[in-house]
Amino acid sequence: MKKLACAAALSLAVAAPAANASGYVQPHVPEVVVVEDTAASNQGIFVPIFALLLLIMLHHG
């Protein structure tokens, strides 16, 4: 009886890794967060406004 229990335990120990070997775990990839900076979009208007003011001042000056 003891030999039979040892043989059963040994066969389970050999078969257990094979049953789990084909398992697939999808890798976890963190999401990419894109931060848009909108501070620079308003700065492009200052140069034309200053140029227009300079032209107006030169014309009326």
Task: Report on the biggest sheet.
Answer: none
Please tally the helical runs, counting DSSP H or I stretches of 4 or more residues. Answer: 2
Task: Let me know the number of strands.
Answer: 0
What is the CA-based Rg, rounded? 38 Å
What is the N-to-C order of secondary-structure elements (H for helix, E for strand)? HH
**Beta-strand fraction estimate:** under 5%
Poorly predicted runs of 5 or more residues? none
Round the mean pLDDT to the nearest integer and report it: 77
Task: Provide a descriptive summary of the structure in words.
This protein is mainly alpha-helical and 61 residues long. It contains 2 helices and no strands. The protein has helices at 2-20, 46-60. The chain is rod-shaped and about 115 Å long. The model has no long low-confidence stretch (mean pLDDT 77).
Structure in a nutshell:
Helices cover about 55% and strands about 0% of the residues. It has about 60 residues and is mostly helical.
Write the layout of secondary structure elements.
Blueprint: H1 2-20, H2 46-60
Features:
56% helix; 2 helices
